[in-house]
Amino acid sequence: MNIKQLISFVTVANRRSLSQAATILNYSQSTIYEHLNNLEEELNTNLYNRTSRGIELSEKGQKFLPYAMQMIELYNESVRMISDQNKEFIRIGASATSDVCLMDHLINEYVNQYQYVDMEYSKMTTDVALSKTIAGSCDIALICELDFHSNDVNTKYLCTLPCIFVASPINEAAKHGLHKDKDGLPMLLGTMQLDVAFKMLESVGLEFDEYFSSLRNIGDLELVKQLTAYNKGVSLLPKVFVQKDIDKGVLARIPNLMQEVQMKVFILTSNKRSPRLSVANMIKLLNKLYGA
């Protein structure tokens, strides 16, 4: 039994999918399967079953899960203790929106105030942030959602980021608004899945099919903004992220889509232990800089 096998087991248990666990941990699916198989052989028991709904833990797998999580945390704690007694460290994750709107200022302030802390920072989706926080491989994550609840991690609301509809100034939508019966509907550019886009529009009383022909999920907000400026589609972006471009005339708001979609930023931390000093200081700084 080794730590990689335990992390694979906990991630599969959380995601209920070998393929999703492989993506999150950057392993091949065969490696995840090998980890689980080796655990089962060593423990001489069946830990999980494949079902039509995905991976489900067996009764003994459910009993083993909290012990696996404890062993991962003990391993992480031991590494921290022996690697450098005088060094604190923190592992941070952030969604695409949180990354571009909050993280630069946050990290600069944190480094200035806590120069003795080593930092590991990664961009990640909400699903990955949740899985890594549960598994103990991420100390604190910032996610941006319409709403979010989880019993598996500590969740704290931080602030709200208004998102607005923008297009290139030469786009007809920026000049006259979006009209289905005029020249057809444009593509919506973004970093979200289609079901999320539906919910975002519904939150301000809009129907996706009434305003957009399709969704192009790009995954990078900076690229979304550039493609919008090049008149490749319409986008829904954080207001703070595009305001300078609007002021410069690089982007323009759409006259009949002036609604602001209110996206909420949440702080995720482990609910299995009290936060270390480095994490507590990060939460304190987040509340000072951005707290509602």
Give the distance, in angstroms, between the N- and C-terminal Cα atoms: 45 Å
Quantity of strands, as a count? 11
Q: Approximately how much beta-strand content do the residues carry? A: 15-25%
Cα radius of gyration in angstroms: 22 Å
Structural class comes to: alpha/beta
Number of helices: 13
Shape call = globular
How confident is the prediction overall: mean pLDDT?
88
Major pleated sheet: 9 strands, mixed
Order of helix and strand elements from N to C terminus:
HHHEEHEHEHEEHHEHHEHEHEEH
- Poorly predicted regions: none
Share in helix: 40-55%
Task: Tell me about this structure.
The chain has 292 residues and is of the alpha/beta class. It is 49% helix and 23% strand. It has 13 helices and 11 strands. The strands form 2 sheets. Strands 3, 4, 5, 6, 7, 8, 9, 10 and 11 form a 9-stranded mixed β-sheet that branches. A two-stranded antiparallel sheet has the order 1-2. Strand 1 and strand 2 form a beta hairpin. Helix 1 crosses helix 6 and helix 5 crosses helix 13. The longest helix has 25 residues, at 59-83. The radius of gyration is 22 Å and the shape is globular. The N and C termini lie far apart (45 Å). The relative contact order is 0.15. The model has no long low-confidence stretch (mean pLDDT 88).
